[in-house]
Amino acid sequence: MGDNVDKVYYISGCQLKPANKQFNSLKNEYEMAMSNETVIEECLDDDLSKVQTQYDFVEISKIVELEANQTIDVLGVAKSTGELEKFQARSGRELQKKEIQLVDRSNSSVTLTLWGAQAENFDGSGNPVIALKGARISEFGGGKTLSTISGTLLKINPEITECYQLKGWFESDGMNANANDISARDVLGVAKSTGELEKFQARSGRELQKKEIQLVDRSNSSVTLTLWGAQAENFDGSGNPVIALKGARISEFGGGKTLSTISGTLLKINPEITECYQLKGWFESDGMNANANDISARGGLGVVDQQLGSSLDKGDYYQVKGTILLLRRENCLYKACPKDGCNKKVVDNDNGTYTCEKCGKSYENFRFRLLCNVSMALFTNKLFEFQILG
């Protein structure tokens, strides 16, 4: 879809019906359902300057009040941009992501995760303004993060009034302001295990170092904490110290949650506070040998996380288990072109022949094709619709 953004189209042959809010995250009152007879043509009129993407921007400070898994429109400045991370999903699919700290005039910041080509192509130099339409909200421990999904529209420095106003604020005040990070949280845990110091070179040539720690607490849960830079180099995990973190950043992938330090994170070892003594006592008596629930462990990666269906070259295949709630049988069969590889609906000529407009030929026969709309419920309490073709 990347080459089709900001283009205008004539669409005919659709069914207009009230929007099903259960499966449609947009605020439109109506939706169009396409069929085999739908025709889409690009509008090539000379003056399309008045046709623009419509946004309903939400201030970053207001995201904390919204529910997880909602999709929203956001406008923010890329205050900082992480390195491109490449890794392999359990399915063997190669994935890549990049984390960005977005800020706006509400003096709040949020972590945005870009995926796939958007992550690879994004250049954060110069602190560009990012406009997002349909970014997804995630939540952990009260902290909120944003991520792009297959349907998210991302624009860099869009030519809209709000963009110019935001850029002006950032250059005059926001660049040096201490924004409230809604993706960061305070954490207290015991360093149950500590990994080795890892040194590597970023694509930019910058030398980096990190260290991963398994934190546990009295909830009998554990989480992976990543320390960076001097904090990673200087940390000594011997003796299972208690770590107090103020402003640790939350990340999510494949259902697993992790923590990491950022430039503004305050880290203290064995702080002299009551909670520290209580936690240390619990660990030495019970927690050291307990089997904690690792919330950083990734489950099976979802369709969104793996960016399935985002390729224009080929489709993706996966298995899903759920309960069928509704199978629409109306008009589930249609007369299709008999030519192999062509599934276009044919026109009955009322003389014993059938014309395929796609092939430009008439045939004496046709073949029935199955096209059913199905609603399914998953064990995650989510619903989705799909089509069965046959």
TrEMBL record:
Keywords recorded for this protein, A-Z: DNA replication, DNA-binding, Metal-binding, Nucleus, Zinc, Zinc-finger
GO molecular function, one term: zinc ion binding
Biological-process GO terms, alphabetical: DNA replication
One Pfam match: REPA_OB_2
Gene3D superfamilies: Nucleic acid-binding proteins (2.40.50.140)
Superkingdom, natural source: Eukaryota
Location(s), subcellular: Nucleus
Annotated Gene Ontology cellular component terms: nucleus
Family that this chain belongs to: Belongs to the replication factor A protein 1 family.
Name of the molecule in the record: Replication protein A subunit
Organism: Dendroctonus ponderosae (Mountain pine beetle)
